């Protein structure tokens, strides 16, 4: 039974890696699913052929071969608790690792593979021990003590800073980095997984007492272990984490493993006393940890020198652990260890541009949808337009929305706006529930593009859905953090957008924070006269744009990076991101070097987007130079001899004139220095 259980688990480990690191990236979702279906059919046919073969009747023992039947209920209960502890801890390990490494598909695949591989090794070892037929209870009890001790010790010593430092200093390519990630995950979960695997065959051997009931009792053990695992996953993910946090969730799950050991242990002066004492001491010592210590240990952002005295709030919820830090540039929201949004002036600039640029270029917009709340910057910008009759926000996390008051100084308590409708829902599913021709603007800034599931908001099918929901002259703005992507993946994302919005333009709200703007019908064009007219009607909008250096024709023109002609030429040889090919989710996000593919930027097409912006061409040339050559941003604009002028063909006079006309550009270059 242990060998069969181990082989099944080894197959699962191989499957989890094969799917995520080979089949999905090379074949796509549908072909991968078909492969899985084919394998299931093949297994079913093989089992059917085996069942057709005639075999000799099973010899039934007249007498029991063991004397464990009297304790059968305790064994079943113990393996149930073991399953509960194991799967509950897998949920908690996953929260730890995504906080440290990112909410990537590869993180889950590696964790699952390492746990399953450990279970395979453990079940093989358990099978060997069960064949000896001696001290089976003691070995089972020892496996639970070891599970508790190794789980708590490995979590206590987990340090994401040393982990990432060692990974980033390793120069062996993708395979070497993958090996280090796998080895680090094994250090965290390997020994506990080994103990999980040992438990099953030992419990099975303890329960069996007659050949006639081998199948039924093996099934009972497997069922009990599986039910415990299901309950552990449900309770850990949906109740323990949001109610108790990581520290006490770990405490509760390891208590289940301790209980499994106690059910079968009859204390005597024997060799189990020492490991029992160590496990119990470790478990009781866990209660002295600070409540947020595990959040801090897995907090990847501490690589930049996080001062936890700046923490305004630490909150653990259903889907994420949230940390809000106060810094010199305002407050920053981190979810699962990663920076998601903030109130700094540069962040405010691009987030508000997602709304201001399209709405100021429309006549009487009435309805707006903002997908992903963040800290409320984009939503607050939309709320400044008094003519809007309905403003909607869709966000997956009620926990994130509940933090809005922490950013009231910049979002103006926007969730209290009477025109606002809040939907705790996936943005794409929310759109599917709406009637066609509903919105004047759909804008979104999802989590980092490599995170699992985010590709669904960058797929060609999503843009087609969004286009159906836009009114005749409606527009969509999509955040494109191009430095998070390799050049081929960035171009695949752009290709998906331009295939649905063929007249799209690429804009820069802030350094490296690009966004795509598309229109349902007609050419995408900036009308400066209409913008001026609307600003006269919306004084609060004008104040908001001036505050973040968005207003002024030179600032608007300076956002331009490329027109549709440039974009189509750059992406012509690339396939779009689709539901079947979510290539964004297979970016090496941990190790990607920051750069911008130069062929997607060409400011010479400025007047095709803004016919009256020719006087501001020098400004856009500087922005183009900044993005094409990162060293340009380190120029000191206040020195008499500017080192970077050799990279600026328009010359010193045009350069200095652009600097005088743009507060944003002065801030950008000064910050770069």
Would you write up a description of this structure?
- It is a single chain.
- This protein has helices at residues 2-27, 29-52, 72-101, 105-132, 136-156, 160-168, 173-207, 214-264, 273-285, 293-297, 345-359, 377-383, 398-401, 408-411, 427-432, 460-469, 487-500, 528-537, 539-547, 553-558, 564-571, 606-609, 617-628, 652-661, 663-672; strands at 311-316, 321-327, 330-335, 338-342, 367-371, 390-395, 420-424, 439-444, 470-480, 505-510, 513-519, 560-562.
- With 673 residues, it is α/β, with parallel strands linked by helices.
- β8 (439-444), α16 (460-469) and β9 form a beta-alpha-beta unit.
- α3 (72-101) packs antiparallel against α4 (105-132), α5 (136-156) runs parallel beside α9 and α7 crosses α8.
- The longest helix has 51 residues, at 214-264.
- Residues 62-68 and 634-646 have low confidence and may be disordered.
In short:
By secondary structure, this protein is an alpha/beta fold. It has helices at 2-27, 29-52, 72-101, 105-132, 136-156, 160-168, 173-207, 214-264, 273-285, 293-297, 345-359, 377-383, 398-401, 408-411, 427-432, 460-469, 487-500, 528-537, 539-547, 553-558, 564-571, 606-609, 617-628, 652-661, 663-672; strands at 311-316, 321-327, 330-335, 338-342, 367-371, 390-395, 420-424, 439-444, 470-480, 505-510, 513-519, 560-562. Helix 12 (377-383) links the parallel strand 5 and strand 6.
């Amino acid at each position: 039974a242990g060998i069969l259980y181990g082989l099944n688990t080894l197959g699962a480990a191989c499957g989890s890696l094969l799917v995520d690191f080979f089949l999905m990236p090379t074949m796509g979702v549908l072909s991968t699913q078909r492969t899985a279906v084919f394998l299931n059919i093949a297994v079913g046919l093989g089992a059917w052929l085996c069942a057709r073969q005639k075999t000799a009747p099973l010899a039934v023992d007249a007498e029991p071969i063991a004397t464990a039947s009297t304790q059968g209920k305790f064994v079943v209960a113990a393996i149930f608790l073991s399953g509960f502890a194991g799967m509950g801890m897998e949920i908690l390990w996953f929260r730890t690792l995504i906080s440290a490494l990112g909410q990537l598909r590869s993180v889950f695949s590696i964790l699952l593979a390492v746990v399953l591989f450990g279970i395979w090794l453990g079940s093989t070892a358990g099978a060997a021990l069960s064949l000896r037929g001696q001290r089976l209870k003691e070995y089972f009890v020892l496996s639970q003590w070891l599970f508790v001790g190794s789980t708590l010790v490995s979590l206590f010593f987990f340090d994401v800073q040393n982990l990432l430092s060692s990974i980033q200093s390793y120069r062996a390519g993708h395979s070497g980095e993958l090996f280090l990630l796998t080895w680090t995950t094994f250090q965290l979960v390997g020994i506990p997984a080994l103990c999980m695997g040992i438990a099953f065959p030992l419990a099975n051997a303890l329960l069996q007492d007659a050949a006639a009931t081998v199948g039924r009792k093996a099934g009972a053990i497997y069922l009990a272990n599986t039910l415990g695992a299901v309950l552990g996953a449900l309770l850990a993910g949906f109740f323990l984490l949001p109610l108790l946090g990581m520290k006490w969730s770990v405490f509760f799950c390891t208590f289940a493993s301790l209980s499994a050991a106690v059910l079968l242990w009859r204390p005597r002066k024997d060799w189990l006393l020492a490991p029992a004492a160590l496990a119990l001491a470790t478990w009781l010592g866990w209660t002295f940890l600070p409540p947020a210590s595990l959040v801090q240990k897995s907090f990847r952002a501490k690589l930049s020198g996080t001062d936890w005295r700046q923490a305004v709030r630490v909150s653990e919820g259903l889907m994420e652990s949230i940390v809000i830090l106060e810094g010199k540039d305002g407050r920053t929201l981190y979810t699962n260890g990663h920076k998601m949004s903030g109130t700094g002036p540069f962040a405010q600039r691009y987030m508000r541009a997602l709304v201001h640029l399209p709405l100021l270029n429309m006549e009487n917009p009435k309805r707006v949808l903002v997908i992903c709340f963040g800290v409320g910057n984009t939503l607050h910008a939309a709320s400044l337009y008094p003519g809007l009759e309905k403003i909607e926000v869709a966000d997956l996390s009620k926990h994130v929305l509940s933090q809005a008051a922490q950013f009231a100084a910049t979002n103006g308590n926007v969730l209290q706006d009477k025109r606002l409708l809040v939907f705790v829902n996936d943005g794409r599913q929310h759109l599917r529930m709406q009637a066609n021709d509903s919105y004047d603007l759909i804008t979104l800034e999802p989590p980092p593009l490599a995170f699992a599931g985010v590709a669904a908001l960058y797929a060609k099918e999503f843009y087609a859905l969004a286009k159906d929901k836009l009114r005749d002259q409606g527009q969509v703005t999509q955040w494109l953090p191009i430095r998070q992507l390799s050049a081929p993946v960035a171009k695949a994302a752009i290709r998906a957008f331009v295939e649905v919005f063929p007249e799209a333009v690429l804009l820069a709200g802030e350094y490296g924070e690009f966004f795509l703007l598309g229109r349902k019908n007609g050419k995408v064009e900036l009308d400066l006269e209409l913008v001026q007219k609307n600003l006269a009607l919306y004084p609060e909008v004008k104040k908001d744009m001036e505050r973040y250096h968005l207003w002024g024709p030179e600032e608007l023109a300076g956002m331009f990076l490329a027109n549709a002609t440039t974009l189509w030429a750059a992406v012509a040889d690339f396939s779009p991101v689709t539901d079947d090919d979510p290539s964004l989710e297979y970016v090496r996000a941990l190790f990607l070097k920051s750069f911008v593919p130069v062929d997607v930027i060409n400011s010479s097409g400025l007047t095709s987007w803004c016919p009256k912006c020719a006087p501001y061409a020098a400004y856009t040339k500087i922005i183009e130079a900044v993005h094409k050559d990162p060293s340009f941003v380190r120029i000191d604009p206040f020195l008499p001899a500017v080192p970077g002028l050799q990279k600026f063909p328009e010359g010193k006079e045009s350069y200095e004139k652009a600097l005088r006309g743009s507060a944003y550009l002065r801030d950008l270059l000064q910050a770069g220095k």
